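Q: Entry one of two.
A:
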Amino acid sequence: SLVESLDILQKESVNKKLQKIITQIKKEVEEGKAFSETLAKHPEVFPTTYIKMVAAGELSGKLEESLEQIETQMKKTHELTSTIRGAMIYPSVILAAMMGVGIFMVIVVLPKLTVIFKEFDTKLPLATRALIAITDVMSNPLYLAIIILTIIGCISGFVTLLKKEPRFRQFVHNTNLHVPIFGTVIKNINLAQFSLTLSSLLRSAIPIMDDIEITAATCSNVQYKKALKNTTEEIQTGKPLSEILRKNQFLFPPIVTEMIMVGERSGEVDQLLSELSDFYGKTVDKTMKNFTTIIEPVIILVLGLAVGGMSVAVIMPMYTLMQNF
């Protein structure tokens, strides 16, 4: 039974917080409350999609099938998220290491060399003068503190505007979609989220209006959220979903709308959307792997240019000094 299942889960769970939540859910289910109703009291653990699908399973008497659909969807979502995060870890670590080494060089090593260069009784090369200026600024605690506080302030202001100002967030998300390469990746990610969530919801007994509204909440880009929310208003008039989405081909390419149209005619929209989610999931996975392959030589090139520029700035004054002697 459901109560026995929850009891086993509570005993097997390693996470103490989750144990308490499962214990509370089990207690309320024993008192006669609906399973979905008890889950809804813990939105920080169970997302809206999860709760709605459980509720639909309870109404239709197919809770086990609903939970299997949830498990499949969450597994695919996790794989998609892991692919994106995994691709970003390598360049992030390399860039952080480069910045750390660069700051150490500018603050600790280069000030000792620039003291010698300043004593030269000759005009220094432009690269050396630029290096001395940067070193003087970075080695000064006051200037360094101002720079760090400015950077932190800019990042904090950007994040705050992104969270609290809808127009700014919409502008940023719209701009992201138009960035070469990255814009295509963002589209594929959102299309994978859209098709995966909607296909799972359509297999349950949830009304299509709620399906689209929940799907809109799972998309990470504001433009997709807005487009799908507008879709819920138009679909009330009786228009097919494919016809509504076809009006915005920038967000929903022909392959999406045509597949949905075929599904509407054959009565297998959920199946075709599932195939679309697999397609876009594999596309994102392949793109992320290629991104990692491409970013490695780019990082090496940038690192080489930085080291080369620093070497030129240090060596050129020495040649100038030798020529004077």
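Q: Entry two of two.
A:
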Amino acid sequence: KAGITNFTTTNLYPAVNYHKSLNGEKSKYLSLGFMGGYVQRSIDRSKITTNSQYGPNGYNPSLPDGEIFTVSNYHYWDGSFGMSFNSPIKGSESDTYFIGLAYHHFNRPLNSFYKNPPVELNPKLVASAGVRFTTSEVSYLTIQADYSKQGEYNETIAGATYSLKIGNDYENPDYTLHLGGYLRLKDAFIPFLKLDYNPFSVGFSYDANISQLKTASQGRGGFELSVSYAGF
């Protein structure tokens, strides 16, 4: 939910993944994933303020807002798929790398309160790569990057995370603490903190604005909290 008009988006995106081992040691994998689901969006039209509602005596909420859309909510079905390859580096058991490619919104769903003309959601192509190096018996470093392109828009984000295992058993640590930083080119620097306590993970990040918008935003961005559970 965002803004004074209560613009609300609800996504339900179940995903299924299949992993195929490519060697006898089961350390090299090719993975294929599909994700698709239901999206619903709504807005409180009574809280919209437009130019049409201003007259000789100033703002008058009883005047029509001048917008031509007739419904305050809509929904659509969306679909995506992707593939990745994971492998050890030169036979190492702990140093690995991955490359991946994903294609989102391949069904070009209609994405607007306005029905005429229809507005399609452009497909999005995402290329990803990463590498993980062991730095000691209790720590490792992960470097990764994503490139996204959707219509005329493109985005590149890259960074690194240092991870520290906490506990007596380094193979199955009680906790793993992750601390890192990522850069969204020409837009934001993103410090990142995450704690793994199997089977749960809790992460926290903040987008610090570094683009030309920082004159107005004073460098302020957005917080993000993530909680995940890995079972089976």
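A: Comment on entry two: The CA atoms of residues 148 and 155 lie 5 Å apart. The first strand starts at residue 8 and ends at 12.
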